[in-house]
Amino acid sequence: MFTSLRAQRASSAGQNKTLPSFFILGPPRTGTTWLHQVLASSTILPYPTKETRFFDRHFPRGLDWYLAHFPVSDDYKPMGEVAPTYFASAQARERIAKLIPDAKVVCVFRNPVERVLSLYRLKRAYGMFPWTFEQAMMKDPELFNSGRYATHLKAWLNALGEKQVLVLVYEDLKRNPQTYLNSLTDFLGIARISLTRSQHRVINASEGLTHPRNYFLTRTATGMADWFKAARLDRLLAVAKHKYFLKFFLRSGPNFEALPPDRTCRLYELFRPEIEELEAILNRDFPSWKSASPKPAAVQAAA
Length: 303
Prior knowledge:
By secondary structure, this protein is α/β, with parallel strands linked by helices. The chain contains 13 helices and four strands.
């Protein structure tokens, strides 16, 4: 497989097509939508689909399929991908390390309890499963696995080396978006981007999301969207999503309920070992990530 892809890479290079030089790895629900929009004018990113899922889901489709997602540009701009599902994927990590060993990757970490509640909310709204939060934590491995920050960070460091991995913190983005962005652009080696007034507001892609009005219809629509992506009908999908999907499927059902305080405390205990190991790796303390605040966490309020 890799021999064949290396041949495709050489062929693509002859057609002025190169592979990405950087990846924003996420994990999911860490401000990647905001980063995608801010970086769009200074880099070459997949369009109109934000996430190709090539290195973790569509790898057998080959490099030509992958590179077709990137706009052709005469300007010299670094090519990259905002790909939050790659963070916890061993396959994506292995494939990127073998095909693009000099790639730069960015990991963004967020309070793990807030993040997992937000991820549950998004997946439930899109009809990816019918479960309650407690059921989803038992049945959907991604919810917990994507919060194993220290474990996966160490794997990326081992695969690519410390100089090629940058760690950012979502709460720093919320406090000072410009300083946060400067750290990223300096690491990627691109000119600094001055944020506009509107860009200082971090995009909250899950605002207004609810339980699906009809689970089976929403699940069918989500499945059709995945097929459109695989078939490279991205522009048609973008129009349909904007006109119909958001209005009729994602924001018209029952609101998300609050998570009881005792279950919130159990979540903090679940993620505590990973956070303590991350603190040791980064030499930085995250006290608010290890215990519940006086204000109860809520699935409905998760960003």
